[in-house]
Amino acid sequence: MKTLIAAAAVAALLGLSAGAAQSAEQVKVGLLTCDVGSGFGYIIGSDKTVDCWFKPAKGGKSEHYTGSIKKLGLDVGYTVKGKLAWLVFAATGTKYSKHALAGQYVGASAEQSFIVGLGANWLVGGSKKSFALQPFSVQGTLGLNASLTWSNLSLN
Description:
Blueprint: H1 2-25, E1 26-36, E2 39-56, E3 63-79, E4 82-91, E5 103-125, E6 131-133, E7 138-155
Antiparallel strand pairs: 1-2, 1-4, 2-3, 3-7, 4-6, 4-7, 5-6, 5-7
């Protein structure tokens, strides 16, 4: 429990420092929200489906993505469906095209659930590895789970 809290604090500090640098080098392009499927954490990892929608910051048509989020590390327990929401940033000068968020994202995650839970996720990737998902995703879960993992989000 203490390790999870310490990891979340470190992630928060890294996110704050990355956020300052990010604003100078990247521009916000929208919001990605995902429904995460239920499942078990099997001590060394988990694999859950995601159903996501991307809403562009400057308006326009929302885009639908499906995929999975795989975690490797300490991941113990069970969660029912959850929600994730990230601000999406692109490198300055990156031309955003339809379904440009499709691809692989990698990073770190920390989560704790006791009936209701919260988490922090930091991921980078996508088309030409030019997108970053905000270090502090909003995550809501129901269940009994604790995780501190490396994560891989795949969007199709």
